[in-house]
Amino acid sequence: MFSSPYFTDRRKGLSKAEALIAYLGGSAFQTVIDNPVTSYRQLIQQFAKDLDGNLVDPKVAREEANAVFKKNPLSASLSGLGPRLIGVGFKRIPKFGALMGISYLLAEGEQPGMVAATGASILSAPFINPIRMIEKQQRAYFKQTGASKPILDICKEAAAKNFKPLFRGTIPLMGHSLASATTGLVGQPVLQKYIQKELGSKTSLGSFACNLISSACVSPIYVAMTNPLSRLEVIMQTSSIKGESISVTAAVAEVVKDTRENGLRGMFRGQGIGIAKAIVSLSMFHQGRIYCMDWFKQRNKALGYC
Questions:
Q1: d(CA 35, CA 27)
Q2: 21-75 pLDDT, tens per residue?
Q3: DSSP code for 271
Q4: Are 233 and 136 in contact (CB under 8 A)?
Q5: What is d(CA 121, CA 223) in angstroms, rounded to the nearest whole number?
Q6: C-alpha–C-alpha distance, residues 130 and 30, integer Å
Q7: Alpha carbon separation from 132 to 24, 42, 196 (Å, rounded)
Q8: Which domains does the chain have, with CATH numbers?
Q9: Are 199 and 205 in contact (CB under 8 A)?
Q10: What is the spatial distance between Cα 134 and Cα 150, in angstroms, rounded to a whole number?
Q11: What pTM did the predictor assign?
Q12: Closest by CA position to 50, among listed 39, 38, 61, 41
């Protein structure tokens, strides 16, 4: 197994296994940098309803999220970071492993295509969802307690129900993951290469600047596709584990009601901060990935592997 071309074929500078490690490294770097923005966005979407269950104006939800961050800036910024970093392994190895595995079977080059992205999104969802559920549950009670909910408490509550609550929101996650993979993993690198070719050769823009520009171009499209799905995830994954689960149909009905009462501002709560998060996330992920890939290529060349 470990002598297969997946691990040893370095004709393009690095093997698929090394590319997988580079993707994981980029993901870990992105996770640390964008966590405060991720936390803030969830709170804006979560506070769409008050403690009595009534929908509130998006402006009010944003003010409540601001109040949480002002009161506990460090705790709010770091909330969910532990599960997210653990999730780099539990979430990203299945996703990137499937991505690289399918790409390898299709004999694609360094950059995976749409088929690999689609397959990876579907196959990895059951592995990713429990981590996302725990991450969101950690932030779910900031308004009431002012602190992150301990991971052990979340796991104990889920265990009492045979861990079924950890799979709430899997269906919208599949759509979210597919949009993320096709725009972020496939579309952004293609656009970056084009921008680098057109602008890099005519201006003094470097790789990082081209990376940032391409992420800024892709992010509004990605967020427009995923924001409603993100709302469904937040609705389904921030309800009490001890209580009844919220179905996809009920979550959709809540978003529809929010849209009727507050217009498109209700449907796209967190859209602005979502675009900012996507730009930061994509840029940091690809910058970390590219750094790791370049390191492997230089190492392999120095060792005479390619």
A1: 12
A2: 898 898 888 888 989 988 898 888 888 888 777 888 888 989 999 998 888 888 8
A3: H
A4: yes
A5: 17
A6: 20
A7: 17, 11, 34
A8: 11-162+170-302 (1.50.40.10)
A9: yes
A10: 9
A11: 0.65
A12: 61
At 141, the amino acid letter reads: Y
Confidence at residue 220, expressed as pLDDT on a 0 to 100 scale: 81
In whole angstroms, how far apart are CA 248 and each of 171, 228, 231, 294, 299?
8, 12, 11, 43, 48
In this prediction, residue 245 carries a pLDDT of 92
Record the tokens describing residue 264, joined without a space: 């498109």
CA distance 168 to 265: 25
| Distance in angstroms (rounded) separating the CA atoms of residues 87 and 19 | 18
Secondary structure, 3-state, 97-121: HHHHHHHHHCCCCCCCCHHHHHHHH
Counting every residue written for the chain, the total comes to 306
Distance CA 73, CA 183 (A): 31
Q: Which two tokens stand for residue 95?
A: 């996703």
pLDDT for 207-248, tens place per residue? Answer: 777 777 777 777 788 778 888 888 899 899 999 999 889 999
Quick one: DSSP state of residue 14?
Answer: S
Q: What is the 3-state secondary structure (H, E, C) of 134-203?
A: HHHHHHCCHHHHCCCCCHHHHHHHHHCCCCHHHHCCHHHHHHHHHHHHHHHHHHHHHHHHHHHHHHHCCC
Residues 6+ apart with CB under 8 A from 298: none
What percent of the chain is modeled with pLDDT above 90?
16
